[in-house]
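Thread: "does anyone have the structure for this chain?"

Original post by V.I.:
We have the sequence but no experimental structure in hand. Need at least a predicted one for the grant figures.
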Amino acid sequence: MIESTDTPDINQPPMVTAVEYPSTLSPKNLGEDSGVVKAAAVLAAGNVISRVLGLAREVVKSNLYGASPLLAAYTVAALVPMTLFNLISGGEMVSSSLVPVFSDFADKDKREALWRLGSAVLTLATFVLAAIVLLVELFAEQVAWLAGARNFSDPALFQVTIDLMRLATPAVLFLSVASVLSGLLYALKRFTFPAFTGAVFNGTIVVIALLRPDEIVSLVWGMLVGSFLQIVFQLPGLRDGRFHLRFDWRHPGVRRIIFLYMPILAGLVVNQVAIWLSYRLAILTGDNSVTYMTYATTLYQFPLGLVVTALSVATLPTLSRIASSYHHVKVIDPAAAAAKVEEFKATLAGGIRLVIALILPAGAGLFSLAPFIIVLLLEHGRFTPTDSDITTHVLRFYLLGLAFAAIDQMLVFASYARQDTWRPAVAGVIAIAVYTAVAVLLLNALGLYSLMIADAVKHIVHTVIMFWFLQRRLGGLQGYGIMRLAVKTIIAAAATGVLALAGAQLAATVLPGGFGGRLTVVAVGSLIGVAVYMGLAWLLDIQEACALARLAARKFNRVR
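Reply from O.Q.:
Generated one for you, C-alpha cells below.
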C-alpha cells in the first residue's frame, strides 16, 4: 500500500456545493443543466491537466534518476510533508469538513462571517503546522528511522534522506494554507482556481527538475515552490476576502470543522501508519522497490482519479441535498422521508453503475497495455528494461483492486453526504488491519508483490464493509440493476483487454522502435479497446456507457 508522495489531493471536488444538481443521473438531464456542465467541465479539466502533468513528472524522474536508490531516498523524505498534509488538511479535510461548514456562511449577507471563520482557520492552521514543522526539523533523524530509511543497504542513503526531509517538510505549511483557500473557493462556487492547483504543483516540479537535472534536491525545491505557488495562484479568486490574524479556538465554525473531521482523522492516522509500514516493508525487498511502487501508483491513480472525480461532481452534491431534505421532513412527513431514502438510494446506485461502466474497461485496458505504456512513458534515460518489467508487474497487481477502490469511494462519499464520518473510519481501521496482516504474511513468499496484493484485499474488504453498513442503514441497493450491469461490463471489459493487447502486440511487431513507434503501439491498442468496448456495450445494452457516448457525441457536434 502506497500513495503518491508528490501530488497533494487538494483539487478534489468537494462533496457539498451550492450548485443545484438534478435528482437523477440521466445523461440527458446532466447535459441540459448548464451549471452542472460548466462546473464539471472546469473541475474535470483541472484534474485531467493535473494527472497529465503528474505523468510528466514521473517521466522526468524516470529519465533523470531511473529507479535509483537515490530517488527512493527522495520518495521517503517526501513522505513526511505528504503524510502531515494528508492528516491535517488534505482532500478529506476539504470535502468532509471545510466545504460543508464554509458553505453555511457563503451567502452574500454572511460574507463577513465567512472571512472571520476563514481567518480563524488559517491562523490556527498556520501556527499549529509551524510548530509541527519545527519538531520534524529537530527530530528528522528519528522520523527518517520510522519511515524505514535505516533499512537502505547503502548507509549513506540514510543521511541523504534526512537532509532532503529537512528541506521538504516546510512544504506542508504551504500545502495546508492552499487547502484552506481551496475550501473557501469551493464554498463560494468559484471552481476555476482550486481546480488547477494540482496542475500548478506538478508543473512546477517538472520545470525545476529540468532546470537542475543533475541534483535530486531539485525535486524537493519543486515541491516547495509548487506548494507556495498554489497559494499565490488562488489569491485572485479571493480578492474580495478580508483576512486578518485571528486566534479563535472557540469559534463555532472551527469547533464544527473539528467535530466533523475527528472520525476521518482517526481513520487517516491508521491509514498513514500502514503507508509508513509499507515503505519499511518495501525497502526490505530492495532499495529500488519504493520507486517502482511510486511509478505504478501514479499510473494506477490516473483512471481512478478521473472516474471518481467526474462522478463525485455529478452525484455527491445531489446526495447531500437529498440527505438534507430527508432530515427536514423525517418527523413531520414519514411518507416523504421514505421517498427521500429511495431517491438517495436510486441516485447512489446510478453513480455506482456509472463507476462500473467506466472503471472496469479502463482497468482492463490499463492491465493489458501496461508494458507498452510503461515503456513509452518511463523507459528512457536511466530507466532500464528490467525496471519496466518490475513496474509492470507491480501495476498489474495493484489493478486487481481498482474497481473496488472506485466503488468504495462512492460509498464513502455517500456516507459523508449523510454527515456520517464514523462508519467509513471504522471500516478503514478494519481494512488497514487486514492489509497489514496480508502484507506481512505474504512478504517472504512474494516479496514486493505481497504489498500490491494486500492493497487489493484492503479495497475489497473496505467495500464489503461499506455495503454492509449501507444495508443496515438504508436497506441496501438490491433491485437497482447493479449486479446485472456488473456481469455485462465484466464480459465487455475482458474482451476489451484481450483485443487491445492483441492489437498492441501486432502493432509492436511491425512498427519500428523509438518514441513514435511506441506511441503508435499504445494508440492502436487504446483505440481498439475503446472500439471493442463501445461495440459490446451496444450489443449487451450497457446503457450507462451508451448514454455517455451519446452525450459526448452531442457535445462534440455542438463544438463543431
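V.I.: this helps a lot. Residues 27-480 form one domain.
O.Q.: and The chain has two domains: 27-480, 481-560.
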